[in-house]
């Protein structure tokens, strides 16, 4: 059953579920010094929990995606929320680094089960341009999460111990259960998906990987998201270290990129009424390429901050239109294996971005090196753009 118009409550419920990911990654960031002091370890050791989480999140999506195609979205999603809530409580009672890292790994597996089910649920409901619109509407809500998560963590930390942050995450996950049951899995939100053939987990991934026209979108997403991940990793260094801004000014500068993503997201929703998803994806990737070229010029020509900022906003903001259209274009190829396909896309996105971000620590700690790393990721996305344009022209001529 395909619905051309999706109720806002359904969109909001799916977006709130997706927000579990950025909240679990960013809410505890302000507590790093306190966690290190509490556990008797360095902040660098605490930061290992981020790397562990990203890698386990990719694994959780790979496993959960195929399971959701085999056993249904509801079972896998609810299991993910239960795992997430339980492990969050364990982390909240952690008294050692091993417990923290182990808890974060299990928490990420639960989050992976949960997050990978959402794109599949979208694919079960709509396809093509309608799917891109739904992803865009969800993105409009979800893009706020990384911006407000550290503030939420700071507020909780002001009320008490850092442990409360993870207890709050557990409560958040548990509150999603009745919401999803009522809105998504019963009543008007319930949608019957196409019957998925019975096959093993490996067979499902083999099926997705053998769909060659869809594979460039995986590379496209990983490259674009890696550009964003590079910026997030080095944002503090760029604005506070290189440009010498205060923590409060940094928050405003960082928020400017969130605003840019929201603007691109709104423009994307308007354009989807007139243009196909692939065309908007090409235009948005072109904008990102222009932004990156300007960033390279800004870094090597030592532009002032007021000239540097718009270039960064263009390069990062364009992801607000790139990501939803990649998801829509990619999942269009998999009407009966949406969970497996979404898992592969998500795992590639987080796995590649996390690995490149970790490897970037070997680069010189300079603005030029950071921008060149972003440019390398962006150039791969641009190659995918060029490939899609050439393919499109060949199809028209044929």
UniProtKB/TrEMBL annotation:
One GO cellular component, as annotated: plasma membrane
Top-level taxon of origin: Bacteria
GO molecular function, one term: xenobiotic transmembrane transporter activity
Main location class: membrane
GO biological process, one term: xenobiotic detoxification by transmembrane export across the plasma membrane
Subcellular location: Cell inner membrane; Cell membrane
Domain Major facilitator superfamily (MFS) profile residues, every copy: 10-393
Residue spans crossing the bilayer: 7-25, 45-64, 76-94, 100-122, 134-158, 164-185, 214-237, 249-268, 280-301, 307-330, 369-390
Membrane topology annotation: Multi-pass membrane protein
Keywords: Cell inner membrane, Cell membrane, Membrane, Transmembrane, Transmembrane helix, Transport
Protein family (similarity comment): Belongs to the major facilitator superfamily. Bcr/CmlA family.
NCBIfam families: efflux_Bcr_CflA
Protein name: Bcr/CflA family efflux transporter
Species of provenance: Vreelandella arcis
